């Protein structure tokens, strides 16, 4: 009887733990995205890039094709948005965050740039993975 009691306690603990950790993960991912909005809007592209895993193999797939690597992605942002007028104010509209595995989520949404040279809007799908205790973007498709 004692074994059955312990078994049910473990099941309850496991069942109760999952939603909390998922809720925490989603909140942490949203915090990374909020920090990216702020950094971009303050003309801090390196701060914006802190949301990404700093890796030579991280893929970014955009209108002009695929790019691999954190530094190449930063260089692409710097050349595509060279001035404050072209960077503007960034806002994300998160449409969906879905769990892929215990340590990975995909995020679908829209980005909106309010800027002097005209608005720029688009969509994205990014993949977050928990790496060394931090949620980082490990793949980005934006258009």
| Count of all domains | 1
What kind of sheet is the major sheet? Answer: 6 strands, mixed
Radius of gyration: 19 Å
Secondary-structure element series:
HHEEHHEEEE
Q: Which CATH architecture is right?
A: Roll
Strand content: 35-45%
Arrangement of strands in the largest sheet: 2-1-6-5-4-3
Overall pLDDT metric: 89
- For the secondary structure, the number of strands is 6
SSE class: alpha+beta
Shape: globular
Assigned CATH class = Alpha Beta
| CATH fold title | Nuclear Transport Factor 2, Chain: A
Count of alpha and pi helical runs: 4
What's the arrangement of secondary structure elements?
Blueprint (H helix, E strand, L loop, with lengths): L1 H40 L3 H4 L10 E4 L2 E4 L1 H11 L3 H4 L1 E13 L2 E11 L5 E12 L2 E9 L1
Parallel strand pairs: 1-6
Antiparallel strand pairs: 1-2, 3-4, 4-5, 5-6
Task: Summarize this entry quickly.
The chain is built from four helices and six strands; from the N terminus they run ααββααββββ.
